[in-house]
Amino acid sequence: MELLHATDVSKSFETGEGPLQVLRGVSLSLTAGTSLALTGESGSGKSTLLYLIGGLDVPDAGHIRIAGTDIAGLDDPGRAALRRGTVGVVFQQFNLIPSLDVAANLAFHARLSGRHDAAWTAHLAERLGLSALLSRFPEQLSGGQQQRVAIGRTLAAKSELVLADEPTGNLDEATGDAVMDLLLELVSETGAGLLMVTHSMRLAARLDRQVGLRAGVIA
Ligand SMILES: Nc1ncnc2c1ncn2[C@@H]1O[C@H](COP(=O)(O)OP(=O)(O)OP(=O)(O)O)[C@@H](O)[C@H]1O
Fold first, then answer.
1. Closest ligand 1 atom to the C-alpha of 199?
2. Considering the entire predicted model, what is its pTM?
3. How confident is the model over 28-74, as pLDDT tens digits?
């Protein structure tokens, strides 16, 4: 089943020096249960594309269809609902909620999207090695532990599409590899699709497909 289909997506930003055209007609697609690495040099627009797909920003032109819905047709609350349910984003900076403990962070998006399933969340906590850390707060966790919570938060909401922006970019190599193992295993078990931005050809090679962005188009 086609999960994601982006067609001719363009995006520019206003800067002090005039408009900067970042994406110039990007098309890509992803089937449920498969993974795609998005590579490209710094500034090539990888994060911009991921944010558009995640409904965190809107394209100037083009279409993004996720699980059959054209997200251009959604209003702000509709896009917010998309981000908490169908689509989950794992950021390089973890982005956990500092005032909530691990258990509440894990369940946060699932609760907001009406997808909370206590048994499934407990299973994820166990698989992610978080069961003994449930009452800790994010600042009391290592980077690797925080990223495991962020992955769990996305999967707890049963997201069909997981977007990850350099998810191991803030971790040392051994910790990053362990986090990547868990991400790939759990995404594959849940049958979600994964779109991951990475600078690392080594990490990109672990995903099913690799595409590169260059000068605003898929190279
Ligand atoms: N809100 C914004 N306003 C102005 N320019 C922006 C904005 N967001 C991104 N840009 C510019 O768009 C270009 C692409 O940025 P983007 O973050 O998508 O690149 P990237 O490929 O993810 O880079 P990196 O690998 O360094 O994270 C950059 O030149 C960046 O400065």
1. 25
2. 0.93
3. 999 999 999 999 999 999 999 999 999 989 999 999 999 888 988 88
Question: What CATH architecture is 2-218?
Answer: 3-Layer(aba) Sandwich (3.40)
Q: Report yes or no: 57 and 23 within 8 Å, Cβ to Cβ.
A: no
160 near 127, Cβ under 8 Å? no
- Please write the tens of the pLDDT for every residue from 65-75: 998 889 888 88
Residues with CB under 6 A from ligand 1: 13, 15, 20, 22, 40, 42-48
Name the closest-CA residue to atom 31, ligand 1. Answer: 43
d(CA 189, CA 17): 47
- The residue ranges of every structural domain in the chain are 2-218
What ipTM goes with this model? 0.95
Contacting residues for 188 by C-beta, under 8 A, at least 6 apart: 33
